[in-house]
Write a structure and sequence with these properties.
4-stranded antiparallel beta sheet; Neuraminidase; single chain; mainly beta
Length: 278
């Protein structure tokens, strides 16, 4: 049974953001949020005080922390993957594949070995085909292409399945990750029947996928079998992405220019910088 929208009530965590996107927590519980419209990232302390962390002069859209303390950033307008050290100094990590500039990276995630996966749909129409890449010590490899605006992405805990939000197809797809590190055939995990399309997402410790969906104003909770098990309110009609901290889910929301906290009683699946070293 799908739980009702009234099951969880969003609480305002911080407002005054300009197209908030790409939330990530550092180990101290500070939240880093892209202000995509103005080209910078803010740091929000656990008590809700915010300050500017770094300006990219582009459109930062997705972030994830590396274990070494750097914040990796997908910037759509600069068409680059950037890294900001704790002081805010920026370096360009990836800007091309096979001699061709990236289309415009959207979101990214590290696996437990520190390999970086990112979507590259460009900054154009939501029906434009894009690609998904993996960056490792062996270089940059193309995993899949042709999806209609590949957007948010996530890995299951075993890291043998890659999930991609395809905004242009209004669905979440899954790709098995083979032992040789290539990906297998795409399967539709969940097809939305309303709204425009999914955006960012994260996996909880319960194994479920928490998917923002625009402009319905919900976070769809999808189990590993592709069943919709809950519909959570996002605080506005245009949720863009989510991140876990403790037992709460934090949602960036564009209609209100805010970040909301949903006390869902679930921890997030540990990310690369939160895992013990091998």
């Amino acid at each position: 049974m799908v739980s009702p929208l009234s099951g969880v009530i969003p609480a305002l965590f911080v407002g005054g953001q300009r197209f908030p996107e790409g939330p990530s927590f550092d180990p101290a519980g500070n939240l880093f949020v892209c202000n995509r419209r103005d080209g910078f990232i803010v740091k929000v302390t656990p008590d809700g005080r915010s300050s500017r962390f770094v300006t990219t002069d582009g459109k930062p859209n997705g972030t994830k922390f590396h274990r070494d303390g750097r914040l990796f950033i997908a910037d759509m307008v600069r068409r680059q993957i950037l890294a900001a050290d704790p002081s805010g100094a920026l370096t360009v990590v990836i800007d091309a594949f096979d001699g061709q500039a990236l289309l415009g990276p959207n979101d990214l995630i590290f696996d437990r070995n520190g390999e970086l996966y990112f979507t590259d749909p460009g900054a154009g129409e939501a029906t434009a085909p894009g690609a998904v890449f993996r960056w490792s010590r062996d270089g940059l490899s193309l995993l899949t292409s042709g999806q209609l605006y590949p957007n948010g992405l996530a890995l299951n805990d075993a890291e043998d399945m890659l999930f991609v939000a395809e905004t242009g197809s209004n669905r979440v797809s899954s790709f098995p990750i083979r032992r040789d590190r290539t990906v297998g055939q795409e399967r539709v995990l969940f097809q939305f029947t309303d709204g425009l399309g999914p955006d960012g997402m994260a996996v909880g410790a319960d194994g479920n996928l928490y998917v923002t969906h625009r402009p319905t104003g919900i976070i769809a909770v999808v189990d590993p079998a592709g069943r919709l098990v809950a519909r959570l309110p996002a605080g506005g009609s245009l949720p863009s992405n989510v991140a876990f901290w403790n037992h709460s889910l934090y949602v960036t929301e564009d209609e209100t220019g805010a970040v909301f906290r949903l006390d869902v009683g679930v921890r997030g699946q540990p990310l690369f910088h939160e895992r013990e070293r091998n």
